[in-house]
Amino acid sequence: MIELFESDTVSFDRVSSKGNQLKWKSGDYWYKADSTGYEGLSEYVISSLLAKSTLKSDEYVLYEIEDIKYRNNVLSGCKSKNFLRDGEQLITFNRLFMSQYTENLTDIVFHIEEHEERLKYIVERIELVTGIRDLGKYMAKCMTIDALFLNEDRHMHNIALILGKDGKYKTAPFFDHGAGLLSDTRMDYPLNGDVYEMIEYAEPKTFSESFDDQLDIAEKFYGTQIKFNFNHRDVEKILKKAEGHYSDQVIERVRTIVFEQMRKYSYMF
């Protein structure tokens, strides 16, 4: 457990449709408290499973479960190491677009009728502004991760690039998976709900309302960019470390979701 204080709190321009979690920075670590359910557990489980993929270690952020004492309350949550170097800034797609075109990227994307054209527009415009190459492959990885783990809160305000002090851009490691694994038990995915039904009606927000649609389009244009090599035993080991931090009911639900998604997307393994 770590005790954090008012002076450690941080706010961002990254906006979540689920509302903003309490966030802190202390030393070289970021901390986030759960606000709608078990976001910290989702961050920990998803990032631990990304470690068992073809992603390189600098392509994703690892999270650990952390109990946080704040204002005499003990909150569940997670921590991650700061991945920004001195002089670097995290710039969201929407913030970048607003600075260049004074328009909201999300609004423009969802006014494009064809879903394929939406993804192409995002990739081409961001590449044009930043000079980044192969952004499509990065987006394909992102859509794969979000489909497998049901991250419903990936939109233009929380997909980000890193701006170096030299003025050059690069892609950020994959982070912020807290809305995955049906973690919002407060409103959208109650613990007493049918897990399999809720999996079916979970929707993304990047450029389509269907995880499979987003994934199919990304793979069509940019190919399959990630493979996973974890199995049921690996999942059990990861969940074992969550015991005592989250209830048995929550852990069992996450287990069910991960196993079902492994079955559905078996070609990724």
Describe what you observe in this structure.
The protein is an alpha+beta fold. It has two domains: 2-84 and 233-268, no CATH class; 89-222, no CATH class. 38% of the residues lie in helices and 14% in strands. It is built from nine helices and eight strands. The chain has helices spanning 39-50, 93-101, 105-109, 115-130, 135-149, 195-201, 211-222, 232-240, 248-264, and strands spanning 2-3, 23-26, 29-33, 63-70, 73-81, 89-92, 160-163, 169-171. A hairpin with a 2-residue loop joins strand 2 (23-26) and strand 3. Helix 5 (135-149) runs antiparallel to helix 7 (211-222) and helix 8 (232-240) packs antiparallel against helix 9. The mean pLDDT is 95.
Secondary-structure topology with pairs:
Blueprint: E1 2-3, E2 23-26, E3 29-33, H1 39-50, E4 63-70, E5 73-81, E6 89-92, H2 93-101, H3 105-109, H4 115-130, H5 135-149, E7 160-163, E8 169-171, H6 195-201, H7 211-222, H8 232-240, H9 248-264
Parallel strand pairs: 1-4
Antiparallel strand pairs: 2-3, 3-5, 4-5, 6-7, 7-8
